[in-house]
Design a protein that fits this description.
The protein is α+β, with helices and mostly antiparallel strands and 190 residues long. The chain is 32% helix and 27% strand. It has helices at 41-55, 62-87, 93-99, 139-146, 174-178; strands spanning 2-9, 24-27, 30-35, 102-108, 112-119, 149-155, 157-158, 161-162, 166-173. One of its GO terms (molecular function) is ATP binding.
Length: 190
């Protein structure tokens, strides 16, 4: 299920004063990290997800959420950062600072965990139609299959100025993750 919310909402995670890029900020019910706009963001994001889920007491969800984080971060880098960079003027230092990096966040509401990846482009994500012959384009289908639902929101104003960008998010059920996997017995297996 996809839930697209193009209206403007505040999705900016709280950050502590002095938190640097790659620092994971752990607070009650949340974990967040600013990542560089480089391919290194993807493994750093997966590590942040595992650390954040441990902090939130939801370690059993780590594999699925880390995989979804990989897809969302790859999309943010390939489309969001590139799109924002192509719009940017070389002389606009303030805009450049706002479009550097992507932010990954985890928030727990008790029964659910929401993963969000924020990038500097306001262009919405596009789920491609299923094409088995295509070499790529299945990332959002994977996100859809592993999460309860996913969607995107535009960033809200901050300090009286419109923030460039969007947040793409996916919601996961903690309850489903806590159920043990069914045991399968194969007769005659060596």
């Amino acid at each position: 299920m996809v839930i697209a919310q193009p209206q403007s909402v505040d999705v900016s995670p709280s950050t502590k004063q002095g938190a640097a890029e790659n620092d994971v900020v752990l607070e009650a019910g949340s974990a967040t990290c600013l990542l560089p706009s480089t391919p290194h963001a993807v493994p750093l994001g997966r590590a942040m997800v595992r650390r954040g889920l441990t902090h939130l007491g939801a370690e059993s969800m780590a594999d699925d959420i880390a995989l979804v984080a990989t897809e969302l971060l790859a999309n943010a880098l390939a489309h969001g950062v590139r799109d924002a960079a192509s719009r940017e003027s070389a002389s606009d230092e303030l805009h450049r600072r706002r479009t550097d990096g992507v932010r990954i966040s985890l928030k727990s509401s008790g029964a659910h965990v929401v993963l969000s990846v924020t990038d500097p482009s306001p262009t919405p994500p596009v789920r491609r139609p299923r094409d088995l012959a295509a070499g790529g384009g299945r990332g959002l289908q994977l996100v859809e299959s592993l999460s309860l639902c996913w969607g995107w929101t535009l960033l809200d104003e901050q300090d009286g100025q419109r923030q460039p960008g969007k947040s793409v998010w996916a919601m996961f059920s903690k309850v489903a993750a806590e159920k043990p996997a069914p045991q399968i017995s194969i007769q005659g297996a060596a």
